């Protein structure tokens, strides 16, 4: 990850501009279909100015993905082993659904990277992501062993929450096409449905 040695206000502003532009371009065209010229145009910066901050498309993508992974993991980090088990699971699900609603481009960018085999973030998946998921899965496993939740595979429970919440960001065009103009906002019904689903799965 390439960063300026010292960030002035202008440098911070330009890095934010580049990050926002890269998010827009990468989430639309994917890594392979995106270019530095596209990102510079989207950021309203010259290509040499952009390359002052990031020497390559790869460097921009790496910076963006590292920042995104941190944000993406925050809801799981907040799952509290001292909380009420079912409430903690449902709160995590709602946070993930809210992220899909508020940050669809970030979700699509992450999904695009995974579909391609995660060539640029594979190490992060095998270390930071895996360690956090293992930690929280063991917490959930403990709740189940203590009789607070119905037995289930906690790792696959987490995978299910990911897939059932991020679907509304990654496949939003499909969701809106199927639901039609009568239901322009799928998220309230999605939250109600997923709350019922996970409550039934996890209640003893």
Automatic annotation (TrEMBL):
Gene3D superfamilies: Homeodomain-like (1.10.10.60), Tetracycline Repressor, domain 2 (1.10.357.10). Pfam families: TetR_C_3, TetR_N. It comes from Pseudooceanicola marinus. One of its GO terms (molecular function) is transcription cis-regulatory region binding. The keyword DNA-binding applies. Residues 12-72 form the HTH tetR-type domain. GO terms for biological process: negative regulation of DNA-templated transcription. It comes from the Bacteria. InterPro entries: Homeodomain-like_sf, HTH-type_TetR-like_transc_reg, HTH_TetR, Tet_transcr_reg_TetR-rel_C_sf, Tscrpt_reg_YcdC_C. Coiled coil: none annotated. Residues 35-54 bind DNA. This is HTH-type transcriptional regulator RutR. Keywords: DNA-binding.
């Amino acid at each position: 990850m390439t960063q300026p040695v010292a960030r002035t206000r202008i440098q911070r502003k330009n890095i934010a501009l580049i990050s926002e532009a890269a998010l827009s371009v990468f989430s639309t065209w994917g890594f392979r279909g995106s270019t530095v010229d596209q990102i510079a145009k989207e950021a309203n910066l010259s290509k040499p100015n952009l390359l002052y901050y990031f020497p390559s498309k790869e460097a921009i993508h790496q910076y963006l993905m590292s920042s995104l992974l941190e944000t993406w993991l925050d809801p799981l980090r907040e799952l509290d082993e001292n909380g009420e088990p079912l409430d903690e699971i449902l709160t995590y699900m709602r946070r993930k659904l809210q992220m899909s609603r508020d940050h669809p481009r970030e979700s699509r960018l992450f999904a695009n990277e995974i579909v391609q085999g995660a060539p640029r973030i594979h190490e992060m998946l095998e270390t930071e992501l895996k360690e956090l998921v293992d930690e929280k899965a063991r917490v959930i496993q403990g709740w189940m062993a203590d009789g607070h939740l119905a037995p289930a595979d906690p790792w696959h429970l987490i995978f299910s929450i990911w897939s059932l919440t991020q679907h509304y960001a990654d496949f939003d065009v499909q969701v809106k096409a199927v639901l039609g103009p009568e239901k322009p906002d799928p998220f309230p019904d999605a939250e109600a449905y997923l709350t019922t689903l996970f409550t039934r799965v996890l209640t003893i």
